[in-house]
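Target protein
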Amino acid sequence: MAIAIILYSLHEHIAALAEIEKEGVELNGIQCDIFQVPETFDADTVKELGGKPTNYPIANREVLEKYDAFLLGIPTRFGNMPAQWSAFWDATNTLWIKGSLHGKLAGVFVCTGSGGGNENTIASAVTTLVHHGMIYVPLGYYNVMKKLSRMDKVKGGGPWGAGTISGPEGEREPSLIEKKIAREQGRKFGKIYWKTTH
């Protein structure tokens, strides 16, 4: 009984949220492991973009088959998932044919530079989940209404999933309120997963 968090994080923002989501999942007594999708940029490009490589194990088709549910950390690129995530999903054709992911739960959390594209990134990811027959679990507003509706703080995320706003050059770190929302997403996702497996 285990949940995998799979992410791509060029500037550590998604990785920071992933660690908080993991804490939330584990409040339910559920094992949670973090993986990253393979990098498609060469090392020079990552350096030129100011990237900070993460050191999580690489996710592959075997990881998708092994785990029962997934929280996916996806940064926004022009309102969509980045090429690294697209390449990862493009390599899952054999799993799609076999229906290996059918019925597995999945939630999404995001990071954007400006805040634009949060929900669109998740909505585009849901298209892939649907093709695999996976069950999308949104964050919703329950237990996070006050945090999501605050107008006095800059924050990412929404009812589709937790999120953070990094700033145009990745200079902004996830705030306390964004971390609290991410933790609650992990907790609720873990609780729903536990209910579906017992």
